[in-house]
Sequence to fold (797 residues):
Amino acid sequence: MIPLSWYLALSAVLFTIGVVGVIIKRNVISMFMCIELMLNAVNLTFVAFSSYFGDVTGQLFVFIVMTVAAAEAAVGLGIVIAIFRNRESLDVDDASVLRL
Amino acid sequence: MFNLSDYLPIVLMFIVAIGFAAGNVLLSQLVGQHKATRTKTMPYECGKDPVGNAHERFSVKFYLIAMIFILFDIELIFLIPWAVVFKSFATAGRDLGTLIYVEMMLFVALLLVGYVYIIRKGLFDWGERARLEAEAEGRALAETEARRRAMQAATTARAA
Amino acid sequence: MNLSFAIPLSAPDVNFRLLLPELILSVTGVVVMLVDAFTGRSQRRATATLSLAGLAATAWATLWLWPSAQGADTRAWGGMIVLDPMRLSFTLVFLIVAALTVLISAIWVEWEGLPAGEFHTLLLFATVGMMLMASGNDLVMIFLGLEILSIATYVMAGFRKNDLRSNESSLKYFILGSFSSAFLLYGIALVYGATAHEVSAQPQASGALAQHVILAGTTNISAIAERVNDGLYPPLLFAGAAMLMIGFGFKIASAPFHVWTPDVYEGAPTPVTAFMAAGPKAAGFAAFMRVFLLAFPFVAASGQMRSTGAQLHDAWLGALWILAVLTMTVGNVVALVQTNVKRMLAYSSIAHAGYALVGFVAAGAADSAHQTDAVAAVVFYLLAYAVMNLGAFAVVTLIARSGDRRTDIEDYRGIGFDSPALSLTLSLFLLSLLGVPLTAGFMGKVMVFSQALGEGYKWLVVIGVLNTAISVYYYLGLIVVMFFRERTTEWRAPRIPTTLAVVLVLTVAGVIYLGLFPGRVINAFRAVQPIAVSSLR
Fold:
């Protein structure tokens, strides 16, 4: 049997990849995909714990996270479409009417 | 417990499936005749003659449909576990059947409200509106094309 | 792999009474949505009236629940929903914010021809999300409330679809908002794993009598508090708490997690900015305080070895202290150099989150008897901030005109004597934000700082007062610009529409009332039964 810590390490690595991706990527869609990666790393943590414990609560949480991620995806892509209509670029460096 | 040999049937199924597909292609390569006519070398598009370029831009309404689909689709993950455990909750010991039935119906009713809302907002109305949108999109495309041409002309003029 | 999962035996204690405010508001939201779909754009007033009626009914239900906040059955839905003074007082703050936002936005949607029904629906759902954040006694519930709030707010920030600034504001809010949600979620997952405990459960197969022992983590706040000392993986608990702190830190816009705030607040339509600065921030505080005060509570030292719970408490309190100092200082110092009023108010809102964090630190250090007082002080501070902030943004909305065109400090030059009503009320709100005596802001600061002093945080209070001194410069600077600078360009005083007049009257009255008679409000928040409520029963 694969020990729990392996799953936790894997999900921590995935989460970190997601965080780094959001910080260094300049394209909105890529950033968005990195956020999804972070959410799925969390899902992996939940499922690993849940399966290891034999407790169903963690898996229920994963359902909720998936639903929320879908809603976020819909809204996020809607925002991206709105930006794309007003300006033909998805590079966040171009999104600088407001200075940072 | 995890036991690799339990997965043997699945592996066998993969092998058979891949073998079947690859075998048929190979067989037709080996035994079949090869006469390349114009119709045969055309890209296959469900039996219709291909029109235009494949790298066409899709209308935004397809995106909207896809988005709505995702939203309604994901709700299924609540329905299926509910259906699975419904019986064990409705048995005499717990007697929660009515409650969880009503709650799920409420959930479905809320989804229905969302559905009615998007219909009323004209998301599926592709008649008049779609035509207007397509015309507007065509105009916008022509405009950008004209601008690009003008810019090109300007650069060539400057180069000359 | 353990593939046989056990279903928990506990009965879902259904109690609709406890959830009444949230239910009323959700139903109102759905009704507003349907009314909007079936009447079309002509019925702008209808949805606003309906929303206000729903908010009023919700407020009534909240007041009706108030006396039972300390009774016997204050938990329901499997311990997911809790009824306590903290929840109810925060709920009232949210309702006030939502109602004032409906009124402020009435003029704005008319100017710009925006779909009012959609805006009201989103606003109501966002409010439901905030209320769930305050009432959830389970990390799952808090996360769901947060997402309901955030997703609605992302859309509201980008509500002016054809304006690039609004789009960008929405995009930045969305990216950083979901980024922080992911941190929060990871924190929840780690806490869930770290609090694993042996529980007995029945296998799912009906009829099987054999109980077997399984491990189970928990996301219930009360259960976490019981298990902090003997969870299976204490290091994970620390990591989880840190992640939760990052997530909530983003939501309440505390430094160093504040970078999104100025851009988002500047680009979003002004009424939405008003809402975001007052509502979601308060909701973030509600969830932040509930999780950290109740799930990772103060543990009295006992014996030689300090328990995990005590170590955790020290760690998060120390981190929060630093967060409070950074937030106050960064907010005030950067606000000094702003040239745009909305950006200035954004940095001011960061600074105010810092002052509220001072009260939070005091609540964290207090024992349970004093904790209610400190929490009540923080809620009072957030209420005062909400009222004066919404008032200030109402004036900014009116001066900015459609499209948010005039929001630079230059645009306020010399308008003081042309439209005295507007500039005098704005001055009052600025003075209150600064914390001049006899205003709500002053009382709020006094309460928060006195709680901190009571717990022995001298330096924190000193830094807070120094920061207030810094903030004199930019608040008074705007007043000076309005009254003592010559107007160089032509300016026409805007006519004040009825709805906005109502908002201004209400907020001015609120600022003065909270500044002069804070006693009744603060007593109600401490859950001494308010007189108005007992006569209502």
Remarks:
- Chain A touches chain C through 48 residues (CB under 8 Å).
- Chain A has three helices and no strands.
- Residues 30 and 92 of chain A are 11 Å apart (CA to CA).
- Chain A has a mean pLDDT of 85.
